[in-house]
């Protein structure tokens, strides 16, 4: 699934790390000579002129995303490894979501048909796969990113703690827009906006700076001690969502001093900490 | 994933401040009231990278430590500050690798070991990070060049990495693995100034890959019969 060995010298691909040996133009010449067609599909000539043209094209016509035949799908340009990895991670997550959603719809559909046939209805559903489901990966990725921004807030955190799913009332409680439904770009963006506005109702109250100062003055020894103490007392599995690092002026509720979540403790490697 | 060495790395080899930092990081440091500031996590990642570049023993183990911290941060605060900073540092070092190599072979070798260790341990949804595949190959191919094959240190590093992650790398990009092995065959056959140890290492790795990243029993006997188990 990876591209040919010369593509590591791509000048307009997603990889921008440099080879120590070749200069940019030398790299692209080497690359271009092994390819029959240029970016625009026209047949290339393997000579200097091509090189000049090509580097110029590189500089000017960089679209914001590209697809390679050997790639998995549309990729946006990542200048660095960290972003590439994050994007990869999100793409995998989105794909898993797609599978899950499809299964859910199929099951729901199936149950619906069951119900109808058992009740003697002559109607029957034809296609089990929802025809109007958004499947474009680029769109799903973009939407997921927007959802992530909304979810990665203290407000959302407090919201989900306060109102469990089964107690949510439509209209009253904010509901995450469904990225799999077909909406126009404007409609979707508007839904996201409204959702985030609604979530603000759960913003934490702003507190004095005093609390934070006191914390900074603690040194690591104290911190370690307190942590070890807290670990002894029982903690629940649900307590995995602690403070978020997105909001710096966040208040720190006095009653949230439970120990390291058990999930985290289990991930400790057998690293000698003595 | 190869099992790491039997000795767990001792935290005492770090200075006191660093020890504290690492301890908190490893215990999922992220207390409710002591927010894992981005600065702390960055600090930790820098400490780990710096140490990995100096200490070859550590560079073989740091992947595991990093994995623990990444998981902890993800679970606790859904963040990836640590990983992001780690990868940024690694990328920076990658760009400067030729300089590093000319300055110190030891450091260069540590870097490659570290990079491969990260590749091995830091998986995304149980898959190796795609972003690292080409860079890792670039490093290994550098090690397979004539000037590097002259140094036993570099050959040793090369074969060690291939033992640990060769099969995974091949799955991600078979073509580049072929490219690497063309160079290794050439080096083995044609290069005049290889030490006999270097030749032995190269022959072993050629056989290792040919056997599907496993050494046959007889081959194992040949290469390792003198080595204490």
TrEMBL record, chain A:
Annotated source species: Scleropages formosus
Classification via PANTHER family: HISTONE RNA HAIRPIN-BINDING PROTEIN
Family of this protein: Belongs to the SLBP family.
Protein name: Stem-loop histone mRNA binding protein
Basic and acidic residues composition-biased segments: 37-54
Biased composition (Polar residues): 55-68
Sorted UniProt keywords: RNA-binding
GO molecular function list: histone pre-mRNA stem-loop binding; mRNA binding
Chain positions covered by the region annotation Disordered: 1-77, 233-263
UniProtKB/TrEMBL annotation, chain B:
Position of the signal peptide: none
GO cellular component: cytosol; histone mRNA stem-loop binding complex; nucleus
Major location (coarse): cytoplasm
GO BP annotations, alphabetical order: regulation of translational initiation
Domain MIF4G: 28-210
Function: Functions in replication-dependent translation of histone mRNAs which differ from other eukaryotic mRNAs in that they do not end with a poly-A tail but a stem-loop. May participate in circularizing those mRNAs specifically enhancing their translation.
Subunit structure: Interacts with EIF4G1, EIF4G2 and SLBP; probably tethered by SLBP to the 3'-end of mRNAs ending with the histone stem-loop, it also interacts with EIF4G1 which is bound to their 5'-end.
Family: Belongs to the MIF4GD family.
Name this protein carries in UniProt: MIF4G domain-containing protein-like
